[in-house]
Amino acid sequence: xxxxxxxxxxxxxxxxxxxxxxxxxTPHDMTHTEADDDRVLYNMIVVRNQLDKDSEEWQKxxxxxxxxxxxxxxxxxxxxxxxxxxxxxxxxxxLLSVTKLSIISDSQNxxxxxxxxxxxxxxxxxxxxxxxxxxxxxxxxxxxIALDAADEFFKMASATYPKRPGGDRADEGPRALQS
Length: 179
What we know:
By secondary structure, this protein is mostly helical. It contains seven helices and no strands. The protein has a domain at 37-160. Helices cover 55% and strands 0% of the residues. Helix 3 (56-85) packs across helix 7.
């Protein structure tokens, strides 16, 4: 029972490690895309795991990791909410899913998608102040352009998450995220 040859001995540890390293996709997703923001989070996790759990540095990194993950979930939730309001109830998750296999549908859409994404960042509250644009949402906007729904998405985002005067953001946490 205690043999080192047991292939299932570390199964629980493997699941926990995979969940810990899984930053955007579902666990064990082999098509997971690793973007710059994924590497930042992964590096934070690696550094934290090398520290003593009782240390102040570990607690700070653990808080930063939790905060970053919660921010990502909130942003994804906002996008999903708008997509569902636009009538994409069944398609929202697949529209938000970005993998290694994802491609830009039309290279001519790239600049338009980037413009819309920047406009969303500057003119709405869909992203928190500290948010660095993720390539992941460029793919989502490209899909919306292909579906002729990008302009409607922007209008809905502007109405649902309007930018507050003075640049204040209601969703800003107690500390700004550090990358």
